[in-house]
Amino acid sequence: MALFRCRSRLIVDMSSSLCHRRSLVHDIQRITKACLHGNATTSSKRKPLSVVTSTGDAPEWNTPQKIQYGQAVFASPCTLQRVITLDNMNEMVHENDRLQIAFVGRSNVGKSSLLNALLGRPLARMSAVPGQTRRLYFFDLDFGPMPLTLVDLPGYGFAHGRPQDRDDWKKLIMSYLERSVSLRRIISLVDIKHGVKRTDEMLFEMLDQMRIPYQLVLTKADRISPSEADAATKAIAEKFGAKPFCSPFVHTVSTVTGDGLVPLRASLASVLTHIQEDPDVM
Known about the structure:
Layout lengths: L1 H33 L16 E3 L10 H12 L2 E7 L14 E7 L5 H9 L16 E6 L6 E5 L10 H17 L3 E9 L6 H13 L3 E6 L6 H15 L8 E4 L8 H17 L5
Parallel strand pairs: 3-5, 3-6, 6-7, 7-8
Antiparallel strand pairs: 1-8, 2-4, 4-5
Helix pairs in contact: 2-7
């Protein structure tokens, strides 16, 4: 009788374990499927599309393994390693041994909020007065043998800035772009409610001329309806996705609801998998 009970308990435990594994597999599949239709949630409320492409191709990072990889990369230890200004730009040489992804956008576009949401912790400084940041912040993600640095660039397009402030911004950005040999991608943030402004287009033109890859991420998707967000994302992808150095994949995110953060992490982490697959890229 005792042996029968033991066997029965073992069968129950094995069945429970199998159900748990199936649940995990189901969760991964659900996350993968959700990547092109918003963040992975169980809510029945329709979410805005989180990724739109100008080519119709599926993103190569849209697999369970690469989605999990992206989550792991951004959950790894992260520290504010260095702050660079025009006065100590010569120290940039110390940052070129790590792959870099830089974030830039108009003032008040939600850049610091997005960085903090991606990292899951409040590391990026949020200025009370838009347009006042005149520094480059380097955040080091220590993900095993493939470390990654996220660079928080100062915002632009601030309405009340002095001409000298705009000149200083341009000098700082140009100095960074010219010195950063390990920069792999610029993430250009655009407020989805206001769309692409002329100052954004000037940035795109400059990056195309410098042959620097960049990707558009539309922020604050929670401030408009899902249908409006879908229409805006598709329109921007069609207009700018075919530019020489612009990624065809346009992301839409909300740091309030968390929509779009999972696929964006996977997309950003793909710069590391590209290096692993092709070391000559360096």
